[in-house]
Amino acid sequence: MAELRFDGISKAYQGRLAIADVSLTVPSGSFTVFIGPSGCGKTTLLEIAAALIPASSGQVSLAGRAITKPGPETAIVFQHHNLFEWLTVRDNVAFGLRAQGVKRSERRLRASKLLADVGLIEHANKLPRELSGGMRQRVAIARSLVLNPQVLLMDEPFSSLDYQTRRVMQRYLLTLWHHAKATVVMVTHDLDEALALADQVVLFSGSPGRILEVVDLPLERPRSPEDPQLREIRSHLRQHLEQEVALGEFTAAELATFDREGMTADL
Fold first, then answer.
1. What is the three-class DSSP state of 58?
2. Looking at the predicted structure, is the pLDDT value of residue 145 above 60?
3. Which residues touch 258 (CB under 8 Å, ≥6 apart)?
4. N or C: which end of the chain has fewer CB within 10 A?
5. What are the start-end ranges of the H helices in 26-181?
């Protein structure tokens, strides 16, 4: 495990600023969730942390060392599982090990262990199309964890799942995180998901994305939505999120009109 740091990260596309001067420390072994309006640069920040794209300015470091290229110390799970449909479940999980030159027998052993950890060992010889959406996402997570990354980056990994499957996968993820002892940074649009999972929630503004607030959640898990402290935090974050969405959707003049007519009371 190691501390992940974002120092003055900005990113511009064709002259348009997507992220503005983001600085953040993600403690070693913690679970951090990014939340904010659509298009505020949360996914871009994950891709910079994984060295998939460069920052326009600033630096991301892990354990004090700058991250300059993709490596086994950092893994990323996307919204869509991106599994290889022509490979078996086991071979999908073992793919990264193959790229590292690990012997076939060890690849199969390590992949099988991860599949057992995520409850899918009996499906090891199936193709991804034979699995449910939740199962495919578990395979994607296992494929990332098999490399023993220090940092696991997750971009809305459960957004395509139905409500009940999503809740099950959240609990499953907490169990895997506990055993893997990795530092997790996750993007979600679901405030309840963020509050159920995170040690700290990072609230972003609308584009260009800036950190508005970092909220610590020193609460034991599993967490009840009826917990008074959690309800207070949820209300606070919800109000700020809705305000940022409103600022992105309406002009200042429109918002002023809504205020006069009492239409933004719940924003």
1. strand
2. yes
3. 250, 264, 267
4. N
5. 42-49, 89-99, 104-117, 133-145, 163-180
**Spatial strand order in the sheet of 183-187:** 74-77, 151-155, 183-187, 31-35, 200-204, 211-216
92, 83 contact by CB (below 8 A): yes
CA 110 to chain centre: 24
What pLDDT is recorded for position 249? 53
pTM of the model: 0.87
> How far is the C-alpha of 161 from the C-alpha of 68, rounded, in Å?
33
Show the tokens assigned to 124.
């090891």
The stretch 40-58 carries a mean pLDDT of: 94
C-alpha–C-alpha distance, residues 76 and 215, integer Å? 24
Question: 98-112 pLDDT, tens per residue?
Answer: 878 889 999 999 999
For residue 195, report the phi and psi dihedrals to the nearest 5 degrees: -70, -25
Q: Coil, helix or strand for 60? A: strand
